[in-house]
Each structure stands twice: as C-alpha cells, then as structure tokens.
Amino acid sequence: MSIQPKDLSHHLSVESASRKPSPLKAIAGSVSKKGLNVISLAGGLPNPQYFPFREMGAEIPSIGSWVRGAENEGNLSNVSVPMDSQNEDDLPLSVALQYGKGSGCAPLSKFLKEHTQLIHSPPYKDWDILLTTGNTQGLDMCLRMLLNRGDSILVEKYTFPSALQAMRPMGLNVVSVDMDKNGMLPESLDNILSNWKDGNKPRVLYTIPSGQNPTGSTLSVERKEKIYALAQKHDFIIIEDEPYYYLQMDEYQHKPEAVDPKFTNEEFVKNLITSFLHIDVDGRVIRMDSLSKVVAPGSRIGWITAQPLFIERSLRYTETASQNASGISQALLQALFQTWGHDGYLAWLKNIRFSYTERRNALLYAMDKYLPKSICSYIAPEAGMFIWFEVDKAAYKFADQGKSIAEIESEIHADAIEDGANVACGNWFVVDSSINDKIFFRVTFAYAELHEFEIAIERFANVLKKFFNF
Amino acid sequence: MSIQPKDLSHHLSVESASRKPSPLKAIAGSVSKKGLNVISLAGGLPNPQYFPFREMGAEIPSIGSWVRGAENEGNLSNVSVPMDSQNEDDLPLSVALQYGKGSGCAPLSKFLKEHTQLIHSPPYKDWDILLTTGNTQGLDMCLRMLLNRGDSILVEKYTFPSALQAMRPMGLNVVSVDMDKNGMLPESLDNILSNWKDGNKPRVLYTIPSGQNPTGSTLSVERKEKIYALAQKHDFIIIEDEPYYYLQMDEYQHKPEAVDPKFTNEEFVKNLITSFLHIDVDGRVIRMDSLSKVVAPGSRIGWITAQPLFIERSLRYTETASQNASGISQALLQALFQTWGHDGYLAWLKNIRFSYTERRNALLYAMDKYLPKSICSYIAPEAGMFIWFEVDKAAYKFADQGKSIAEIESEIHADAIEDGANVACGNWFVVDSSINDKIFFRVTFAYAELHEFEIAIERFANVLKKFFNF
C-alpha cells in the first residue's frame, strides 16, 4: 500500500519556486527517429582522451576482515576503476571524470536508493534520492529551497553550530525548542506553534534525531510520532539530519569494554531506530544521510531522500550550484559498494556500530571513574559520537564574580587545554544565549585513542577541582 | 612593487556581511603552553582507522608522453596516495579522507597558488586562492557574497545559460551588455552605467573573457584595460570566469590540420592572454579557474583568486555550505601535480592547447567547405571550445509565417537531429530575448571525433537548404 505524497509546493521559497530547467537539456540524449547516429557538436564536454587518469584503484578491507579473530582479519582487497566499461553497475573513469548528472552517477545512486529502501522503506509513492556533497551542503540547499529571509526555523535548544552559521546569514529567525535528556520535547514544539502570534509561523523543523550533536540524545519512536503529528497539525517540514544514524549502541553495562551482540544483518536492520522518513506518509520529511561518519568525510558524498517535488527542485539547484558531486569520489565509493554489496556494507556498518560501542563504553567508564559524581551528570548516549555532561553551577567557586555561563566555560576550557585535555564548551552549541543558564561540556569518543580516554578525563577532573567545590 | 588592495567591503551582500566565524574553531589546533600533548575529546572527527580505503593509486601519462613521436609516447606512470606521510607535499589518505580545510588541503592549495602566481602575478598584496567545487559553485558563492535580491548584474549579451539560471532565482536583474565578434563592448558597458537611473546601479560584472561561451570571442588586453577602467570609474566588481583560458589557439591558416608551435614553457606562458587578474591593482577582480576543461570535470575542483576580504568571506561560506572540496579528488590531483611538477603541468597544458587547435582547425575547415558562405558567417575563435555562427535571417524561406528567432532555430535544430547532427541554438544563450533578432548556432570541436566533423557539418548544411535560400 503506497500512497501519493501531499502537494507541499506552498512550502517552496521564492528562490526555489522560480527555478527553471536549463535550456541546455535539449543538448543531451537526442535521438534521430531516422535511426541515424547523431553526432553531437552541441554540448561543451571535453573528449575523455584528454583526461590524465587512465585507471584508478584502491585497497579496501575484504568483507568480514574487520571482525577480530576472523579467518581473514586484516585482509585487504584491491578494487579498480577501469577507463571504460559496458557493465551498468560499473562507474568507469570515462563517466566519472566527465560532467555528471546532478542527481549522481547512476550505479551509485541506485545502490544508495536500494540501501534507503532496505533501511527506511518510505511509505509513499515515487520518493527518490539526490546526491549531495555532504549534509552541510544538503542543509544549505534545503534551507534555500524552503525559506525566505525573515522566515523562522525550529531547532533543538542546543544544536550543531555550523547549521546556525548557515541559517542566520540567510536572515532566518532561529527558534529554540526545549529538550530533555531524550531530545526535543514535543510539548515545547506544540507550545511554540500553538501560541505563535507574529505571523510567518515556522514552516520548517531542523532536527538531528539520533545521537544529537551536541547532547547525544536520541528521539524515541513515540516522540517521533508525536512530533510528526505536530508537523501535520501545524503543517511544517521536517529536515531530518542523520549523520550519526548508524552509530547506534547497546545498553551501557558500566564496564570499560563491550560485548559484540553478533547480530545477523537482518537483526541489525531490525534493531535500527525507526526514522521520521519511515513514518512520513505525507512526504513532508527531507532526510539527509551522510557517509562522513561511516565511510569517510573526505568523500564529500551524502544524499537527501524526499518526495518528488523536493527532489526535482533540489536537482534544479544542484545543476546551477554544485553541478554534481565529485565523480572521482563517486567512482571510488561505487567500487567499494559494488565489491561489498548490500550485505557486505551492512556487515561494515555492524563493525562501525560495535567499535563505537566499545569507544563509548571506555569513555563513560573513565568519566564514571574520575568525574566527581556530586557535580557532574550525564547519560549514556544510545547513538552518536558525543557525551554531553552538566557541571552543577551551584558548586562554582567564583559565583560572586558575576561571570556568564560562556565565560565560565571558556575559562575552564582554556585551563584544560593547558593541562592537556581539550573538550567542547556547551555555549558553542546554544541557540538562544539569553536562556543559557547551565554549564555543559561535550566530549567525543570518536577520535582519540582508547588508552587516552582515562588520561584526558583525569586531567579534566583535576581542572574542575580548581573551579568547583566538591 | 606590491600595493594594498582597496577596501571594497561595501560590496558585500547582507548575507555575506553577516557571516561569523564558527565557534568550533576553538576546537582545532589547541596547544598547551605547558608542553603537554593535548588529547582532544572536542572535535567530532572519525578516527581514520574506520576509513575503508588503505591506499589509492592511478595511472597517469608520463611527462611528455602526450607529444606525438616522443620517445615515451603513450607511456603511463603509476601514482599512489599512501595512507600516511610525513612529507609536506604529500596529501595522504589519512588527511584526504578526513574533514578538510574549507580553503583546500595545504599541498594542493599551495600548488595552485604557485601556478596562479606563475601565470597571472596579481599586482597587489596578500591575494589568495580558495578551492571551490568548480566554477559553477564558485559563481553561486560569489553571487551570494556580493548581491542582494533586487540587485542588478551585468553580463554579456549571450552567455552561459547555467549562470543565468543561478542569477535569476536569486532575484537578480540581469543586464545585457552588447558584444561584437571580439566580445563585450566597453562603450555599451559605459553607456548602461552612465545612464543608469533607477538607483541600485549594477555593482558586479560577470564575464567569460577567453573563448566566451557561446560566442567564442576573446577580449583583447586593450578592451580589458578599458573595462577595468570602467570598473574603477563606476566602482563595480569583475567576476572573471575562465574555464577556457588555457584553450588558446594559434591563428587559423585555412587548413584542416595544425602545426605545433613547439613553444618552450616560457614562450607558452608569455603568449597567454593578459587576464583581468593581472591588471587588477584594486583587488576588484574575482577570478574563477577551473580544472574541468584541462584536467577533468568530474574532479569538481576549481579555485577563486581574490583579495583577502573576498577570500575570507568565501571561506566562511564554504564552511557552512560545501565544507570542502572532495578530499579524494584533491588527493588524486595532488598526486598528479606532484608527479608532474609545474613544468610537467605546463607541458600538459601546451598539449591540450595544441590538440584543441587541431580540433578547431578541422571543424572550421569543414564549415568552410560545407556551409553556404552567402548566408553563414563566423570567425575563427582564438580560444575556447566553440564556434558561433550566424545564419542570415534575410534568406529564411518562411518569413511570412511570423515565427520568432527561437522558433526558427528550434525547428532547424529538430530537423538537424533527425538528420544526425546536433548543434546548440543561439536562443538558449540569449540574456534578453526581447532584443534577440539574429539566428545563431553554436558548434563545439571539443567532444566529437575528428573524422565526424565533416559528416556532421555536411548534414547540417543540407538541413539549411530546406530553410534558407542560397
């Protein structure tokens, strides 16, 4: 049972609504009805004989080689990208190095669309994907597609600073939605919208549902359903930014190591959190997926999934903005995915998931061990890269100096750097600094080496001693 | 003698002027004054051990192997990109696959900046470059940096349709500047600006100076100097879009082949057209260079060169829009440039230049041979990929049917496709269709095989017989 997405064209910005297809479309794909081979002197493409790359290759991990103790542990395979190929699943260099389709090269788009179907099975007809050059570009594009200067956008109370840096110069009024440890509060959202008075009611919600940056919180299915019902009630679009989606972790057992649940691929998929995209019967969710956290940020490849209206408008924009994602990146990714197949890629994602669980556990254990419990509070994140912890302001030694939260955090941060531990300050992520009344820090278990976690946290705990009574 | 660029901050758009640096900058590069190794739990970077590529390589042409009859003709060399490296000219995968600098990875930026110095030696202090994901993205970025909705922008009478498709949805009023066979007319430009009445006088000129798309015209140094003087007089910014810059060709000798001038690298550089960048004493030129026509469009790498104000504002935008160009593309390009060096790259560019001269000559010769001289007129382009030719409207057989220029061109185009020849219609490139009163077609010598040129042109000439008296 597949339904038609709703007509949501009233949500397009002036800029997006006025985009026209390029007249140059007539250049490509012309076929003579007389059956003649059409010689093209029309399109300004360079002849591939002038491309200075003849063949490209890389070493990739063999399927399963990432499992510790596996027979082929550590084994590498060679993948190569030939100059030419007639196989429709290949992305040869003659195509990858040429101007490409704004939506992405066919075999890679196909793989990522199949993957999206496998994980989210969107419930309405004719949904599609469009390659981006990562979620940063995807967000910039979506904002310009949906919003005009002076419009308002809803975001979580603490959010990704680059998203704010994209929104504010566009003249958007950023509206802070309250959160608790489980993410955005539907009640806060409903309150804001039900009591909106100034006209120009927000029409777009930007959210990071899984392993939210910076809070590490993850929206439950129940909250998602409530938020989706609000989107229908108040007619807003949900931009679902999901770079951390596959970094979902098992329950923390207060031990520094982790036990691999050894999921089958089916169990792994079944255990993944239900996405907004999966419950989106109207076609009002624009999901942004990224390869940055599970393959490599330097690939600069992501994709959006949405209803045809938003895909078509995004394609028009892509053609005049980024043209297309790097063909060289696309060719290398396609070589990887083609070699691994969907099963191999799911196995890789299970490995990433387990590795992050180990890392989270090790960092949490270090925090449990060194941070003073009486003033530090945090939860074990179910997903993502981040642990967000509050330090009790009431225990701050120098309250009489009248410093702002941002000043207090900055001083502690500077001191911690001197002592060899770098953490992120809560105020960097605050949407509305006028309601910033708690001291937070964000730590990540993504980057440092495992053995460094305890050292860094112990250093930071010692810094806290200088500033807090406990 | 190097001078300070002018303060041109009054040219920034509302959007660009309001951009702020990211607070996350504090995350990177923190150094402990106590000399401790700072362990970072701050930045959300994935650990490179989770990147599924271990080594990347490609086959590239050996230096000089592209010269016909050379000892090493057709020879290929292998280049490889290691996972890690301490050599500062290397761009290893551990860097290329990670989040990168918005301005581009250091060794590639350095090479392209040196190259820019070598070719253009900008005359003012502290100019810099910034990597883009190609000139399409570069233009989108520059337009958003300089212009607000309702502003006007000056462009050549016939221009690249994607540029217009980028400008118009942004709410820009596109002003057509008259041209002759040698490009934009400074008199027309001065006329428009001197007689501008409505307020909001145009502050930006977009131009394709060399091998202009679609007209194939190239601005002489004299015209550039006149236009630059007008930019100073009327205080406008010049966006110099130069994808075809290196496709500069020798004089056409009315023969189907070409003679290699066998330039030394020094002669080659000396013979290149003087750019707007070279005469830009104020820092009011933003030059856009592209690798699409001389290396590969699928690399999606270009760069802008400009004064520090524009580079810094562009960097702020890049950080929240594209983040950075594909690291995989950058790594492969750096491997190529590092292997070739500047001399090898110049030798490659000489080869491209000569190959395009051969192609242009072959197409011109076919046009001379088959197109009816009495109604078709064109010049031999000095640069680029395109030949632009007019077909005399006075000879059109069906003038009594009252068709528009666009309708006439479309009918001829459709007929030519049926007969196996695809050419581009003049009306696709017209800025102001109310002043479109001539029939034009654009043909390119870039893509088809040499032996196909005569076939295609003969087919097209036969189609003209149906529509024109000659």
Structure notes:
Two copies of one chain form a homodimer. Chain A has 470 residues and is an alpha/beta fold. Chain A folds into two domains: 9-33 and 43-351, Type I PLP-dependent aspartate aminotransferase-like (Major domain) (Aspartate Aminotransferase, domain 2); 358-467, Aspartate Aminotransferase, domain 1, CATH 3.90.1150.10. Helix content of chain A is 34%, strand content 15%. Chain A has twelve helices and 17 strands. Chain A has helices at 14-17, 93-96, 106-120, 135-146, 161-167, 186-194, 221-234, 265-271, 308-320, 327-370, 405-418, 452-467, and strands at 39-40, 55-61, 76-81, 128-132, 152-156, 173-177, 179-180, 183-184, 204-207, 237-241, 285-290, 302-306, 376-377, 386-391, 421-422, 424-425, 439-444. In chain A, the strands form four sheets. In chain A, strands 4-12-11-10-9-5-6 form a seven-stranded mixed β-sheet, with helices on both faces. In chain A, strand 9, helix 7 and strand 10 (237-241) form a beta-alpha-beta unit. In chain A, helix 3 (106-120) runs parallel beside helix 10 (327-370), helix 4 packs parallel to helix 5 (161-167) and helix 6 runs parallel beside helix 7. Chain A is globular, with a radius of gyration of 24 Å. At the A-B interface, helix 1, strand 1, strand 2, helix 4 and helix 5 of A face helix 1, strand 1, strand 2, helix 4 and helix 5 of B. Strand 1 of chain A pairs parallel with strand 15 (421-422) of chain B, so a sheet runs across the interface.
